């Protein structure tokens, strides 16, 4: 630790600036004392070095004493969403009231589809997570279901009823927890069923996450966040 | 590359806006920093809130790291510990009581001293071993748990001025030992 320039003989409990530096480093000073100390430190590089030296020793203590504990697996995504997608509108808040309705008839049809009875071309998908995307008021008449095969790393989306408006496409989004929506891709407007390969880093977040479909210009959202209305949404649950 | 150089390198890349480096820095350091948050806050939800704020700060302030003179883990731990302590004070969490038996003069090494004897022989640990057990305990509570003087006075029932005098004397003793 560097010697402080103004250190010298001190009363043991007196106003030794090296000890005030330690109290400052530990956050023990009152607000007024801390401000006064900062003013001194701004004039005195050695005092700043003294604080840094205390911080180094104390951080060593913390490193030795504190066990590493893993935070929730979703936390990094939440932080990245906050930092990197802060321009995305919080549209999942508006869809959640609609996302959990039941459409039993559609589900029955969907189960037929996912088991290959209706659309045998897609029988490679063995669904372990499914979602019924209930329509929002803007998506009235739309019936869309999705099935995820986590082993295959793919989602199959079936448009049971309803078409995209002219010169518009349906885009599929994944919303995990509080994170901003992540685009999974654009649905094929010429076919009733689209199979989309899922990015590896979303796989762990799928159970309980919400799938949503929005109305976008051809080619999909130009911004990386939904730009059009959310037409349908629903949570992924174990099949 | 040493672990320290690796973290330093990641911080430098984060300062240039490298998101991959940010993800790696998170993976590399978040568990330790979360341990720091938990030690101070004792509450997972609060600790995760603070950890989020810490990494947002790291992203926004990584460019100031090079000029501040800290080693990389010290920089991260100091940000984390200070945020957690701010949070704890905003929440007005009452301090954990300190058993006054912990404060009795005792020449045998306390439980902390035993733990420290087993861990790496860092200078700070060796210097803690030279303090009377009760004094070492108070300094550790102040730094590791983020107790204020008022918290420590409440937790021990000792008069605040007496307590501050004890703590400052302990810090002087530590400082003398650290500069030997």
SSE succession of chain A: HHHHHHEEEEEEEEE
Shape of chain B: globular
CA gyration radius of chain B, whole angstroms: 18 Å
Write down the oligomeric state: heterodimer
Q: Structural class from helices and strands of chain A?
A: alpha+beta
How far is the first residue's CA from the last residue's CA of chain A? 63 Å
Cα distance, first to last residue of chain B? 31 Å
Describe the biggest sheet of chain B?
A: none
Q: Which percent range fits the helix content of chain A?
A: 25-40%
Mean of all residue-level pLDDT scores of chain B: 87
Order of helices and strands of chain B: HHHHHHHHH
Helix content of chain B: over 70%
Number of strands of chain A: 9
Most extensive chain-chain interface: A-B, 43 and 57 residues
How does this structure look, described?
The complex is a heterodimer of chains A (239) and B (180). Chain A is α+β, with helices and mostly antiparallel strands and 239 residues long. In chain A, 29% of the residues lie in helices and 23% in strands. Chain A is built from 6 helices and 9 strands, in the order ααααααβββββββββ. In chain A, strands 1, 2, 3, 4, 5, 6, 7, 8 and 9 form a 9-stranded antiparallel sheet that branches. The termini of chain A are far apart. The relative contact order of chain A is 0.14. Chain B is globular and about 50 Å long. Chain B is mostly helical and 180 residues long. The relative contact order of chain B is 0.10. About 4% of the residues of chain B have low confidence. In chain B, helix 2 crosses helix 4, helix 6 packs across helix 9 and helix 7 crosses helix 9. The two termini of chain B are 31 Å apart. Chain B has 9 helices and no strands. The interface between A and B is large, with 43 and 57 residues.
Feature tags:
heterodimer; A: alpha+beta; elongated; B: 180 residues
């Amino acid at each position: 630790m560097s010697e402080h320039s103004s250190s010298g003989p001190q009363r043991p409990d007196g106003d030794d600036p090296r000890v005030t530096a330690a109290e400052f480093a530990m956050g023990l000073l009152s607000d007024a004392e801390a401000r006064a100390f900062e003013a001194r430190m701004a004039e005195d590089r050695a005092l700043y070095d003294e604080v840094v030296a205390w911080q180094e020793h104390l951080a060593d203590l913390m490193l030795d004493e504190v066990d590493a504990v893993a935070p929730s697996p979703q936390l990094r995504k939440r932080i990245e969403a906050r930092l990197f997608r802060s321009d995305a509108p919080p549209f999942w808040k508006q869809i959640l009231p609609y996302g959990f309705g039941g459409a039993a008839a559609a589900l029955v049809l969907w189960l037929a589809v996912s088991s290959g009875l209706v659309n045998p071309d897609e029988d490679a998908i063995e669904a372990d997570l499914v979602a019924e995307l209930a329509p929002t008021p803007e998506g009235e008449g739309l019936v869309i279901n999705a099935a995820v095969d986590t082993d295959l790393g793919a989602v199959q989306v079936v448009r049971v009823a309803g078409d995209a408006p002219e010169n518009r496409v349906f885009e599929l989004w994944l919303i995990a927890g509080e994170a901003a929506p992540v685009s999974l891709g654009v649905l094929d407007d010429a076919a009733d069923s689209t199979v989309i390969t899922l990015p590896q880093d979303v796989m762990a977040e799928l159970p309980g996450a919400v799938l949503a479909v929005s109305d976008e210009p051809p080619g999909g959202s130009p911004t990386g966040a939904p730009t059009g209305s959310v037409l349908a949404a629903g949570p992924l649950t174990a099949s | 590359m040493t672990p320290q150089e690796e973290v330093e390198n990641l911080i430098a890349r984060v300062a240039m806006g490298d998101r991959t480096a940010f993800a790696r820095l998170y993976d590399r350091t978040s568990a330790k920093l979360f341990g720091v948050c938990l030690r101070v806050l004792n509450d997972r939800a609060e600790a995760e809130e603070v950890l989020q704020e810490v990494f947002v700060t790291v992203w926004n302030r990584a460019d100031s790291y090079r000029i501040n003179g800290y080693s990389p883990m010290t920089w991260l731990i100091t940000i984390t510990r200070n945020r957690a302590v701010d949070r704890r004070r905003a929440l007005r969490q009452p301090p954990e009581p300190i058993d006054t038996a912990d404060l009795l003069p005792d020449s045998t090494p306390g439980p902390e001293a035993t733990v420290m004897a087993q861990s790496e022989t860092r200078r700070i640990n060796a210097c803690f071993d030279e303090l009377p057990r009760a004094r070492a305990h108070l300094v550790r509570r102040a730094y590791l748990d983020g107790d204020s003087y008022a918290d420590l006075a409440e937790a021990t029932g000792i008069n605040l001025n007496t307590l501050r005098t004890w703590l400052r004397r302990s810090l002087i003793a530590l400082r003398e030992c650290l500069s030997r």
